[in-house]
Design brief:
Layout lengths: L3 E2 L2 H23 L4 E7 L3 H17 L2 E7 L5 H13 L5 E4 L9 H7 L11 H8 L8 H12 L8 E5 L6 H8 L9 E5 L6 H5 L4 E4 L17 E4 L3 E5 L5 E4 L4 H4 L5 E2 L7 H19 L4
Parallel strand pairs: 1-11, 2-3, 2-4, 5-6, 5-7, 7-8, 8-11
Antiparallel strand pairs: 9-10
Length: 295
């Protein structure tokens, strides 16, 4: 069996082209320019790269972009004041505070202050709750990206045995809630595995769709999956460097071995990663439309 390689780069490019056209139409018909503000506290190298990518993508699509870089010693009150200011700014439809924040700042307090209508990461309890009852305004970016990878690759979720390995609040729990929605295009029967699961392989072996997001290199091996499984590998693990000094990246799935049994599989890199930023842009556009009464 030769697995279909699900390219997140290709699908993200397709989505960004759709968004470019939608943003241009919003400007032409309604004089509406979606706006995204990113907030970075400190000089974490990975966070700087992520924020830079988000800013670059916003500008490429025609989204108004503001970047707020604050020093690492910024106190909590100053950050909260900035979030409050952005909440009140009509040019800004989406607010993204890059995590992790310095230890002296209460991340929960900051995220809870963001206006749920501008919470394009969908981390606010209001947006988490709306997802749980099946009435979301915004879908969390990585879970939504996973969903788009599946449906745009022709994978049927309805009635499928979906196994999610990893129960984080950012990926595992929300993607389990999303794919189990009793709505058209969803409707999976979802099992959520976590650190207390006695034998993960018991569950992974019966998965029609397997989603792995734990941050452990090559955790899932070929003997843990059945023939014809669809695998979405969320993990990105650095296991060394090449002779040229580039990072060697692998996923949570043993790609080379599992692809021989899988019907379809995402690579690492180039799978889920590119989708997250695309979904952030989609949420920003939707936030602008909701604010203008157009959604």
């Amino acid at each position: 069996m030769t697995a279909q390689i699900i390219s997140g780069r290709d699908i993200a490019s397709e989505i960004k082209e759709e968004l470019t056209q939608e943003i241009a139409a919003l400007k032409a018909k309604h004089n509406l320019v979606p706006g995204l503000a990113t907030v970075l506290v400190g000089e974490n190298p990975a966070s700087q790269i992520y924020v830079g990518q988000k800013e670059k993508t916003s500008q490429a699509l025609g989204i108004y972009s503001e970047r707020h870089d604050l020093p690492a010693d910024t106190n909590e009150a100053e950050l909260l004041a900035l979030v409050d200011k952005l909440n009140k700014d009509p040019k800004i439809h989406g607010i993204l505070v890059q995590l992790p924040l310095p230890e002296h700042i209460n991340s929960t307090k900051v995220l809870y202050l963001i206006d749920p209508g501008k919470d394009v990461d969908a981390f606010h309890p209001v947006n988490v709750g709306k997802l749980m009852i099946g009435e979301p305004d915004f879908l969390p970016c990585t879970p939504h990206g996973i969903y788009q990878l599946l449906i745009r690759s022709g994978v049927n979720i309805k009635g499928a045995e979906v196994v999610v390995v990893g129960a984080s609040n950012i990926v595992g729990r929300p993607v389990a809630a999303l794919l189990s929605l009793e709505k058209e295009g969803f409707g999976g029967t979802v099992t959520l595995c976590h650190i207390l699961t006695k034998d993960i392989s018991v569950h992974t072996k019966r998965a029609d769709i397997l989603i792995v997001a734990v941050g452990k290199p090559k955790l899932v091996t070929a003997d843990m999956v059945k023939n014809g499984v669809v695998v979405i590998d969320v993990g990105t693990n650095r296991i060394g460097k090449t002779a040229e000094g580039k990072d060697i990246l692998v996923g949570d799935v043993d790609f080379e071995a599992v692809k021989e049994k899988a019907k379809a599989i995402t690579p690492v890199p180039g799978g889920v990663g590119p989708m997250t930023i695309a979904m952030l842009m989609m949420n920003t556009v939707k936030a602008a439309k909701l604010a203008a009464g157009l959604a």
